[in-house]
Amino acid sequence: MERPMHSRTKRTPSEFQRNAFAPGVLAAVVLLAGIALIDQEFYLAVRFIVAILAVIIGWFALQARQWWWAPVMLAITIAWNPVYPLPVSGQGWMAAHIAAAGVCVVAGSMIKTRRVVNK
């Protein structure tokens, strides 16, 4: 049996790469799962993971010269920092988790750099 024509054609690589996408999605998953852990013993791990991923996303934003994402990621890093935790809880903090998850996914999908093609 003969292969279809599309399997023989070479795919053109994308012009851009989105380095912040995986950390953005991972941060969103941790933020949404972390809602169930608020006021629990393991919530400290949520704070560490979110703060570290926000710094990583912010760094990718600076590398992509999309500096406007850096203050947003800095705010998330400060709000979820595990060293000096902010004394917040309740419905507002749960809403902040959801909002931050959305921001991380949007930032991850919008931060992009031009791909370097080696010939």
Secondary-structure element order, N to C: EHHHHE
Percent range for helical residues? 55-70%
Compute the CA-based radius of gyration.
18 Å
Shape: elongated
> Residue ranges: pLDDT <50 for 5 or more in a row?
none
Mean pLDDT: 88
Judged by helices, strands and strand pairing, the structural class is: mainly alpha
Spatial separation of the terminal alpha carbons: 35 Å
Strand order of the largest sheet: 1-2
- The total tally of domains equals 1
- Bin the strand percentage: under 5%
Number of helices: 4
Total number of β-strand segments? 2
Oligomer: single chain
Largest sheet descriptor:
2 strands, antiparallel
Q: How is this structure best described in words?
A:
Helices cover 55% and strands 3% of the residues. The chain contains four helices and two strands; from the N terminus they run βααααβ. The chain has helices spanning 21-34, 43-63, 69-79, 91-110; strands spanning 16-17, 113-114. The protein has a two-stranded antiparallel ribbon. The radius of gyration is 18 Å and the shape is elongated.
Any key phrases for this structure?
single chain
Layout of SSEs?
Elements: E1 16-17, H1 21-34, H2 43-63, H3 69-79, H4 91-110, E2 113-114
Antiparallel strand pairs: 1-2
Quick synopsis:
The protein has about 120 residues and is mostly helical. Helix content is about 55%, strand content about 5%.
